[in-house]
Amino acid sequence: MREQAGRRDTLNRAAVRPATPDQGPDERPDERPDERPDQGPATSGATAVGVPDAAPDAAPAAAAPRRSGVRGRTAPPRGVVRALAEVRMWPRSFADRLTSPLPGMREFARLAREGALRPTPEGLHGIPDLPYEPGPLPEAGPGTVAVTWAGHASWVVRIGGLTVLTDPVWSRRILGTPARMTPVGVRWEDLPPVDAVVISHNHYDHLDAPTLKRLPRNTPLFVPAGLARWCRRRGFTTVTELDWWEAVELRGVRFGFVPAHHWSRRTLLDTCRSLWGGWVLTDRAGATVYFAGDTGYGHWFGEIGRRHPGIDLALMPIGAYAPRWWLRDVHADPEEAVRACQDLGARRMAPMHWGTFVLSAEPVLEPLLRVRAAWAGAGLDRADLWDLPIGGSARL
């Protein structure tokens, strides 16, 4: 959904008290709001969710750290590991997880006075110069970690012998935005068999129903709490939803769900009805890729780094940040992304969430220029900034 405009809807103040399901809005046929989160009986070990940190504190996280056997790093505690496709019970709202309140009429009035949610004509002149260099996917065996940027927050991550898609959006257009500025960096027919998909949250530029329809319905989907019902209604049979600090394992790769400074909504009636976050993927040898999804800057990055030490690569959003007063709470700017990477203790950073869709007012090339300057200003090794073109790849 159009995050920077939809986020400011006056209905947001009612996020804690969702409207009744019979008040469905006029929407695309494929995007019917789910009446309520899954409320069926939970399988063994399933519990309702309380405060964000309750689960990890109750888990065996205090156990002595394990050695991973790779570069002398210490593997993180196991924490809470859930079963694949486990049926869970969730609260009706996750509004208590918001880092800051969603704005109301005062912010709308300021936006009406100031306007400017799209780049100026001069800011759009950079579209022909956006980096787009599609190439073949690199070879990646079980001991190799490789990433390919398909555009926006969509990556092809090869880790532990698996091919994982992050927030896959192969559509030319998403609801409420102009068409893509750059084509998808990887043709769908060139993808190897997809072993898993991770979703960060339900905004339209991250959860794209037409793209998911291209996948076999038995593809494992890993999604935030409260989003499994949406996926199951579309025929997917192996859907695992997680709370923050929980994890699931698939063929030796661990998928850990971690917090983000963001929010969720897909229709007028489901504000914060599902959770939002990022993913930490770890293979058997301890190699770790952090996918931030969509997030503002804040305290969670330091906590993620403490719980997941030795992150090899952080896939970080750097775009959709202007006007700053309007988007600061939910979208990091390039300088904040570099700071977040340092808070994480990540060895490398690959920028994303820019150069694909026109979502905000900054000039289209500005995120790349600013992140390069911020990386240099922080005294970090230039080789560790993987500022890939759309379609570009890199391997650890």
Please tell me about this protein's structure:
With 396 residues, the chain is an alpha/beta fold. It contains ten helices and 16 strands. The chain has helices spanning 3-6, 54-58, 105-114, 121-124, 209-212, 228-232, 300-307, 324-327, 334-344, 366-377, and strands at residues 66-67, 74-75, 80-81, 146-151, 154-159, 162-166, 196-198, 221-224, 239-242, 246-250, 253-258, 278-282, 288-291, 313-317, 348-352, 393-395. The strands form three sheets. The protein has a seven-stranded mixed beta sheet, with helices on one face. Helix 9 crosses helix 10. It is globular. The model is unreliable at 1-78 (pLDDT under 50).
Task: Please outline the helices and strands.
Layout: H1 3-6, H2 54-58, E1 66-67, E2 74-75, E3 80-81, H3 105-114, H4 121-124, E4 146-151, E5 154-159, E6 162-166, E7 196-198, H5 209-212, E8 221-224, H6 228-232, E9 239-242, E10 246-250, E11 253-258, E12 278-282, E13 288-291, H7 300-307, E14 313-317, H8 324-327, H9 334-344, E15 348-352, H10 366-377, E16 393-395
Parallel strand pairs: 3-10, 6-7, 7-8, 8-9, 13-14, 14-15
Antiparallel strand pairs: 1-2, 4-5, 4-16, 5-6, 10-11, 11-12, 12-13
